[in-house]
Amino acid sequence: MGITEKLMQQIMDLKLTSKILQRQARKCEKEEKAEKLKVKKAIEKGNMDGARIHAENSIRKRNEQMNYLRLASRLDAVVARLDTQAKLTAISKSMGSIVKSLESSVDTGNLQKISETMDQFVRQFVNMEVQAEFMESSMAGSTSLSTPECEVNSLMQQVADDYGLEVSVALPQPAAHAVSVKNSEKVDMNAFPRTMGTNTSEIFTFFYRV
């Protein structure tokens, strides 16, 4: 197996890995939505501790999803670079044969053959420029994803707002509070501490090392 064949095999392997990561990202997205529904149910029951746990799980799944997508994007950028390299290698071999043909045409003094060979030469250079520009644009846009920052309290408020829920959290025993449906009021989340869930994104920091 030549160098070009090995390079193409690596490209196929990386594309497969990228698809696996994207599948994992979709799975995390579904799990994130499921946890949000659990937040809603917990708020309806007045179980604020449970709602907080499910909100934290939802944020963690969102962070996992974004990390999977980020890593898949980086792999796609590598694939684009390798694919360009493989094409440039093929073009380089083709240009080698063109140069030999040009030398032969010059030796024989065949002007028509020289003109045709030069046309081929120009086309190969155009192809190389197009491939280089494509690689640069792919690399420029490959790492544009970023992980959104969201805390547990703001997510719980968002879920409560989406379903028109009102809940009081001012007292120390949240489970004893009643929950009612009220479309015109927002949830008062100011009493919640804002320290939980801030370290959940550290679980998958190994993705950043790739």
From TrEMBL:
<dbReference type="Pfam" id="PF03357">
    <property type="entry name" value="Snf7"/>
</dbReference>
<dbReference type="GO" id="GO:0007034">
    <property type="term" value="P:vacuolar transport"/>
</dbReference>
<dbReference type="InterPro" id="IPR005024">
    <property type="entry name" value="Snf7_fam"/>
</dbReference>
<protein>
    <submittedName>
        <fullName>ESCRT-related protein CHMP1B-like</fullName>
    </submittedName>
</protein>
